Amino acid sequence: MNFISQGLIEAVNLIISGNSEALSAIRNTIEVTTVSIITASALGLPAGFMLGYFDFPGKKFIRTLFDTLLAMPTVVVGLIVYAFITERGPLGGMEMLFEKSGIILGQVALILPIIISLTASAIETLDPRLHSTLLSLGAHGRRIIITGIVEARFAILAGLVTAYGRVLSEVGVSMMVGGNIKWHTRTITTAIALETGKGEFALGMALGIVLLAIGLSVNIALLTLKRKA
Amino acid sequence: MKQNCSYSLENIFHSYNDFSLEIGNLNISEGESLGLSGPNGAGKSTLLRILSLQEKPERGTVFCRYGMKEITLLDQSPYLLKRSVQKNISYGLKIRGLSKNIIDERIDEALELVNLDPSVYRKRRHYELSGGQTQRVALAARLALKPSVLLLDEPVSNCDHRSSLIIGDVIRKIRVSGTCTIIISAHDIPWLSGVTDSILSMNYGKIYPN
């Protein structure tokens, strides 16, 4: 118990003193997770809408596929993305391995099924009268998609929070694709894994506190948005 | 298509499950106010959806003088978007690219027409309205569009007596202007006869002479 409380005190001291190694990992984490969630949302929200709103042949199969991908282990995603962006892989020429862009690609692949699947579920629960109402008011095409997403915004926001939580807490993709390179691709989670392994318990705990604080801030921001909406 | 007709329907056939709608020929004049009466399942709502151009019949031809943006349908139990009353009314107006000033004017005008005070109701959220108020706001959102064809599917079936009277008054005002073709389905024949020029009876998907 003493060990934990002492680690906690040292962790708070490290945060207050602005440890540069920790700050670099924090900066990297915020950067890659922000780009990942924005990219995955831009792709996943319209795709999820289509999947939830329209009926087409093979829809059930695609739904089942995305639902299965929800439970995809991060190391498996990391492995697949690694295979694609390694020098001998099809995207090898893009030099994304051990770069932040590689981590972003992996994280987008990780959370895209979450956003698509949860958006589709949110859209499926929309009131069936919505479509006729929108047509009656003169809406068509893209406007119907946007209004549908806005109408399901609370459920979709919950899905985005879930996706952000997943991307914030993953280790597998960042470790395998990013390589955990100090000052370059080291993120909070890979740093925690490394520092704790090295016996630097206080630094690991400090980074853990920051990780929780980021997660909490995102949740508070979204709750505030929800209240205002 | 006949001159001065909003609609000309020819040999319409449409079916789903064990129901089928069959209409030989039907002409609806411009500016006419037409009532559709009949029991549940008679085909009134299906006919209105076809007239709104939201649904195409399996067979037959629907000639309509207007495009979809000039036709608006109010469902039996209308849906309000999860936003304020003014945003519900402005939604269709924004689609039509109207300026902010005109949108503001139209919101006030439409709310006053359905007897809701704009200063009180503009900012109200969709969940702060009673059933009758919801119906009137949904009607206001359609009226604000100044449609050429107004289709109302049982507009007073979920309303209290006061809201029924208000909606009746609104329809009479629009009818007098003669600029809008109005087609209304309702069970209440005395109410329907008070707001329409003529009534068609429907049963088992067919129109019968009244």
Describe the structure.
The complex is a heterodimer of chains A (229) and B (210). Chain A has 229 residues and is mainly α. Chain A has one domain (3-228): MetI-like (MetI-like fold). Chain A has helices at residues 2-17, 20-53, 59-69, 74-85, 100-124, 129-136, 141-151, 153-169, 172-178, 188-198, 201-228. In chain A, α2 runs parallel beside α5 (100-124). The termini of chain A are far apart. The model of chain A has no long low-confidence stretch (mean pLDDT 91). Chain B has 210 residues and is an alpha/beta fold. Helix content of chain B is 35%, strand content 27%. Chain B has seven helices and nine strands. In chain B, the strands form two sheets. A six-stranded mixed beta sheet of chain B has the order 5-6-7-3-8-9, sandwiched between helices. A three-stranded antiparallel beta sheet of chain B has the order 2-1-4, covered by helices on one side. In chain B, α6 (161-177) links the parallel β6 and β7 (181-185). The model of chain B has no long low-confidence stretch (mean pLDDT 92). The A-B interface holds A 127, 129-130, 132-133, 135-139, 143, 147, 151 and B 49, 52, 54, 68-69, 72-75, 77-79, 81-82, 91-92, 95-96, 141-142, 145.
